[in-house]
Design goal:
With 538 residues, the chain is α+β, with helices and mostly antiparallel strands. 54% of the residues lie in helices and 11% in strands. The termini are far apart.
Length: 538
């Protein structure tokens, strides 16, 4: 009855949960890069317009169009090269900050802290920077070198109003910047909403006023079995005696810690056909009082007693509601015998059913779970034991007393990972926090670049129209009239960009929903608020 499943190693993707978020971040980086290119291109266009005289003189001295293009492209590439060097320095100094978004005790993604800049990454970044320099400089170079420079020499000295055709490309670039910024803002807003929603999602237990800490015993000092069981029992009794402690218990692992034990479970013969055969279910080894300390409701039956926690105590188990519904639908499972889950393949009796609680991540599907007395598994009683302490006030204020309770028994015993259960839940969402934080940073960068783009176009417009503005004021135009004229010009660009950006953001939402779990369509209030923010900055 044994079989084997063979798959190529590269098809196994243990980080699939992170892949979608990384792809979304990569898309955000691409958007920012496009916005930067558009911004630089607009500035080079404005700068090129101011250099028409220089270009005309060079052309008059014999420089052909290709020579002018090469000169302008060389200047653009030099800017890109200097920016590349500065960007690599900023990136290298930012890696530690990004790594800090990963929880210190993560058991799954510990390798994130070892990410460094290597030659392949540097080569890719340099290549992209040079390509960005080419893209940002090619349009201005073609535009400037293609103008009738001899005509400029003839008109030199005459002041004219701004030619709208000269700024059409700049305006188009600004509209594109605003549209892409709107898309990034919506994407960041959706990720932040997802993160906030996961933090507020019910977990099946009460994380408030709950302190957690690990007490791993050294194998050279404590042997598995009665010695380690007695140590933990004495520690638990002393923790319960601390003023302000309402309940305390221990388990071999806790929800959201990235680790749980699974056991092979053979479903009963009368279970539904879709229940499966020979499946693995999550198993949590706990002490008496665990459900009271965690705030997990008892649905039927009873909790474990002190007698159940003895080394030679009765073989009893407690299951969650999902397991009861899946394998014994519509039945009272209290008193049912489970085969093959106790040591020496003895039968176990189900003595209670508790409410479902999240196991590995917020929002994940709740799976069947079996709870068993910790003392019946000596191997688990010598490592990975975690205490949960429910307090009447701030849990961290009780932490020093809990440490002293452990050290009063063994002054050399390590006490690690002392934190609140809320911190444990928050740390389990580090991927979502990292994605939201980085996407928010990219959106803020895009917002600043768009503001610079709008300012650049309007500043160039005012510079070219100085004579026109003077004539308007001489004919009776007030300062308010001139201000409204310029602001109206900028708002036309902004509103057009917002309209395009909102339409693109709807498409982005559908794309993100397929890449990142838990993304929902943003409310109309989100779009309105972000549009007003971008319009106000513009």
């Amino acid at each position: 009855g044994w079989g084997v499943s063979v798959k190529p190693l590269q098809t196994r993707r243990p980080n699939d949960s992170l892949r979608g978020a990384l792809m979304a971040l990569l898309g955000a980086v691409g958007f920012v890069l496009i916005i930067v290119c558009a911004n630089v291109a607009g500035m080079l266009l404005a700068r090129g317009a101011a250099r028409q005289g220089e270009m005309a003189i060079r052309a008059a001295l014999g420089a052909g169009r290709s020579r002018l293009i090469r000169q302008l492209m060389a200047e653009s590439m030099m800017l890109a090269g200097l920016a590349c060097v500065a960007g690599i320095g900023v990136a290298a100094s930012s890696l530690d900050g990004i790594a800090m978004l990963v929880p210190q005790y993560s058991m799954v993604e510990r390798g994130v802290r070892d990410i460094t800049l290597n030659l392949s990454v540097l080569g890719f970044c340099v290549a992209v920077s040079m390509l960005a320099g080419i893209l940002a400089g090619v349009l201005p170079a073609l535009r400037i070198s293609g103008r009738n420079l001899n005509e400029w020499l003839v008109k030199c000295g005459r002041v004219s109003g701004m030619n709208s055709q000269k700024t059409a490309l700049q305006r188009s670039l600004v509209v594109a910047e605003i549209a892409l910024t709107m898309v990034l803002l919506v994407g960041a807003g959706l990720m932040v909403q997802r993160f906030s929603g996961l933090l507020a999602k019910p977990t099946g237990f009460a994380p408030d006023h709950l302190l957690t800490l690990r007490v791993p015993l050294a194998r050279y000092k404590y042997t598995p079995g009665p010695q380690s069981v007695d140590f933990y029992r004495e520690v638990l009794d002393r923790i319960k005696a601390i003023p302000g402690v309402k309940a305390a218990a221990m388990a071999n692992n806790l929800p959201f810690t990235g680790f749980h034990v699974s056991i092979n479970f053979t479903p009963p013969k009368d279970s539904p056909p879709d229940a499966g055969k020979g499946v693995y279910v999550a198993a949590r080894t706990i002490s008496a009082g665990y459900f009271q300390a965690m705030g997990i409701p008892l649905v039927s039956g009873r909790e474990f007693t002190q007698e159940d926690s003895e080394v030679n105590g009765p073989c009893v188990r407690i299951v969650n509601e999902t397991m009861a519904r899946r394998y014994w639908p519509g039945r009272n499972v209290v008193g049912i015998q489970l085969d093959g889950v106790c040591p020496k393949n003895a039968a176990a009796t189900i003595v209670g059913v508790v409410g479902d609680s999240e196991q590995d991540s917020v929002g994940a599907i709740v799976n069947p779970e079996i709870y068993e007395p910790y003392s019946q598994h000596p191997a688990f009683a010598s490592f990975l034991i975690t205490f949960v302490v429910r307090t009447s006030s701030d849990p961290l204020k009780i932490a020093p007393a809990v440490r002293r309770a452990v050290w009063s028994i063994d002054k050399d015993q390590a006490v690690t990972q002392v934190c609140t259960m809320k911190s444990v839940i928050s740390d389990s969402l580090w991927r979502e926090r990292m994605s939201s934080s980085l996407l928010g940073i990219f959106a803020a960068m895009a917002l600043g670049l768009s503001a610079i783009g709008v300012f650049g176009v309007l500043s160039y417009s005012v510079t070219q129209r100085t004579n026109e503005i003077g004539i308007r004021m001489a004919l009776g135009g007030t300062r308010r009239d001139i201000l409204l004229m310029i602001v109206r010009e900028g708002m036309r660009l902004t509103l057009l960009g917002l309209a395009i950006g909102i339409a693109a953001a709807f498409g982005l939402t559908r794309l993100l929903r397929g890449m990142v779990f838990g993304i929902h369509s943003g409310s109309s209030l989100t779009y309105v608020a972000l549009s007003l923010l971008l319009a106000a900055i513009a």
